[in-house]
């Protein structure tokens, strides 16, 4: 696309040419020269800026869901945020993570292929420490996982995929499932070394322990749903209309919902001494007259005014008036 110069830019250019600061012949040579841009085939660009923005939005929701989940499970302060979303070769990702780390290899049907949720050992062992009743402190020296630690970590991280499923719902109905838990990146070859991946990096803080959680999504796995990551899908997609059957089922469920209804006979204020001195036969004066209507509340909201009575030897109340919106203040007075 040709750039359009403003009048001020045109005047500045003419002035530079007339003063000799710029040479017209040199400008012509620059225009005739071929513009070459270096392209690294090992770092092929497979994700557009639009795709990166969409992945960022999705995993910001994922980070919020994880924060809620881990805070509830570990019963301590947990903070998880998206640091960056980038694309790079799979081999570069493997070389960037520790030699001993927690690698949750999973699949997400209906997508074909495997993805990885990498958790820094500091974060993973802090979680295990909290689950076992500790303060959430990672050990200074990390060795191979014991059988108990492996089972606990599988239990913790298998539940995180429910949060991932919820975050991706706006784009696709995925069913992530943990396939294996590894600790050595060299034994994990899910795609070829030069395959482009989307790497979502999440900074994680558990109490005083900090570390990273990285989500590795190969391009070849996510390619079938790449068109859904466009702005068009996010903002122009049609809303799903409810079928008559769904509306009918929803109405039935709402009709079965139970709400507390309370008829207030009145109020009274007693001192602690008067309350302790109450005996059988004592009378407590209320702030309501006998001929005054009773306030009937549905939940915490005033809805009706009624009169007390009885039906077949059971206490009852008759609705005399429906309180309209905005009229509640009059009755409060």
Total number of helices = 11
Beta content comes to 25-35%
Mean pLDDT score, rounded? 82
Q: Can you give the helix content as a percent range?
A: 25-40%
> Which CATH architecture of the largest domain?
3-Layer(aba) Sandwich
> How far from one another are the termini?
70 Å
Main β-sheet: number of strands, strand sense, barrel status?
6 strands, antiparallel
Number of strands: 10
Full CATH superfamily name of the largest domain: CheC-like
The CATH top-level class label of the largest domain: Alpha Beta
Using the alpha-carbon principal axes, give the shape: extended
Instruction: Extract low-pLDDT stretches.
Output: none
Domains counted in the coordinates: how many?
2
CATH topology of the largest domain, anyone? Answer: Chemotaxis protein chec
Adjacency order of strands in the biggest sheet = 1-5-6-3-2-4
SSE pattern, N- to C-terminal: HHHEHEEHHEEEHHHEHEEEH
Subcellular location: Bacterial flagellum basal body; Cell membrane
Main location: other
Keywords: Bacterial flagellum, Cell membrane, Cell projection, Chemotaxis, Cilium, Flagellar rotation, Flagellum, Membrane
Protein name: Flagellar motor switch protein FliM
Give the structure's gist in a few sentences:
This protein is an alpha+beta fold. 36% of the residues lie in helices and 25% in strands.
Provide key terms for this protein.
333 residues; alpha+beta; Chemotaxis protein chec; Surface presentation of antigens (SPOA); 2 domains; six-stranded antiparallel beta sheet; four-stranded antiparallel beta sheet; 11 helices; 10 strands; Flag_FliM; cilium; CheC-like_sf
């Amino acid at each position: 696309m040709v750039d359009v110069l403003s009048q001020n830019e045109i005047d500045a250019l003419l002035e530079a040419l007339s003063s000799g600061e710029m040479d017209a012949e040199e400008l012509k040579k620059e225009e005739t020269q071929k513009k070459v841009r270096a392209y690294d085939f090992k770092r092929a660009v497979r994700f557009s800026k639009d795709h990166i923005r969409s992945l960022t939005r999705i995993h910001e929701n994922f980070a919020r869901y994880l924060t809620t989940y881990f805070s509830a499970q570990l019963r301590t302060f947990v903070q998880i945020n998206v640091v960056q979303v980038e694309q790079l070769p799979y081999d570069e990702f493997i070389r960037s993570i520790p030699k001993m780390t927690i690698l949750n290899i999973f699949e997400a049907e209906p997508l074909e292929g495997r993805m990885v949720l990498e958790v820094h050992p500091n974060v993973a062992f802090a979680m295990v420490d909290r689950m076992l009743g500790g303060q959430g402190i990672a050990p200074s020296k990390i060795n191979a996982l014991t059988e108990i630690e492996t089972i606990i970590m599988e239990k913790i991280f298998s539940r995180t995929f429910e949060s991932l499923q919820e975050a991706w719902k706006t784009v696709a109905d995925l069913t992530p499932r943990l396939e294996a838990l590894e600790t050595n990146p060299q034994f994990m070859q899910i795609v070829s070394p030069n395959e482009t991946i989307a790497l979502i990096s999440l900074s994680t803080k558990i109490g005083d322990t900090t570390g990273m959680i990285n989500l590795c999504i190969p391009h070849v796995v996510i390619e079938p749903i790449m068109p859904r990551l466009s702005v068009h899908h996010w903002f122009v997609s049609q809303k799903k209309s409810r079928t008559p059957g769904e509306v009918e089922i929803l109405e039935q469920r709402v009709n079965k919902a139970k709400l507390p209804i309370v008829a207030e006979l009145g109020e009274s204020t007693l001192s602690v001494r008067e309350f302790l001195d109450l005996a059988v036969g004592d009378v407590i004066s209320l702030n309501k007259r006998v001929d005054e209507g009773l306030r009937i509340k549905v939940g915490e909201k005033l809805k009706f005014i009624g009169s007390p009575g009885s039906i077949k030897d059971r206490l009852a109340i008759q609705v005399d008036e429906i309180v309209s919106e905005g009229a509640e203040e009059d009755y409060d007075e």
